[in-house]
Amino acid sequence: MRHGTTTLIGTFHVLTGLLFVSLGLTRTEADFLAHVMRTVVSDPSAGWVFVVDCLNIHWSASLVEWVAQSCGVSEPLGKKGRRGVLRSQASRRAFLSDLSHRIRFVYLPKHSSWLNQIETVFGFVMRKVVRRGSFRSVADLEAKLQAFVEYYNQVMAPSVAVDVHRQAVGAEATHRILSKAPPPETAPRQ
To answer: How many angstroms separate the CA atoms of 66 and 85, rounded?
Structure first.
């Protein structure tokens, strides 16, 4: 028997391994914007690149307006459906993909969800929390999802971050950083 559903909007921070999630009743442009804003607040001065699929809420007018404000874009954005950056979905996507913005979005082609790291995380959540789960209510489901995310961020995220660092700088440098060992002496060039 079904007693309702919930929407999970998630962000996987590739460098830290942390999950940022938002749970709610709907999946609207306002919900996605609120999620992005909560994610960016975790490190407001950093540059952010969000890898997203082709869902229309990922290039909404409200998202464009917020990114423009957050990135200090002062040029007029126009009017949705009429002119300027807000005129069409294509113009909004182009604006949100602009490499000069501190907060930008990369849009994956259709049928390429395997390229998006959060899809892998969603699959993991499905296997570990939702599938074969028994939930008395939507609130119970949301509580179990939140508990899993907290567990994941405390226990699993650090190992994900170590793996990412290891791939980026090499196993030896990662081991040295984790063990706080001094760097090896380098032989002088001859």
So the answer is: 13
